[in-house]
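Give me the fold.
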Amino acid sequence: MSQEETASSQVELEEFETRDAGEVEALRAERDELRDKFMRVLADAENSRKRAERDRKEAEMYGGTRLARDLLPVYDNLNRALQAIPDDSRQASAALIEGVELTLRELANVMSKHGITKISPAAGDQFDPQLHEAMFEAPLPGTKAGQIIQVMAEGFLLHDRLLRPAQVGVSSTPG
């Protein structure tokens, strides 16, 4: 082989190696880019799975919120019906009263079974804006400002969410 052929072969070999090195580097960059995309897609899929699981649990716990809110007036009306019966009529209407009480108790059991709990403040409790709705404010001797002085309606929670705040009157007497 002549010196020219050897030099030419050497140049071709260097060009080939340079071209090969460039292609290898391009392939490595493409591989790294695809690996990065794959890892991101994998992370997105995991996040989607976790989000779907959280949404499913939330729907299971709070999916009946509208129905629960719609049942609260039924509970209130049964309570009012029992409170409206005069004492002198209680004896004559004992069977009817017992039926209404049983219906109210069954409704309360069903609500409890589904995570609905009562908020039953009492006079003298401290007003909590997270659980109570102030219907009025009035000065009442012997109380401190912010104390509940009257309860108009019980409140309800669905698990840890407020369905309806307890409706209360609050003392405005300066402390």
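The longest helix spans residues 3-62.
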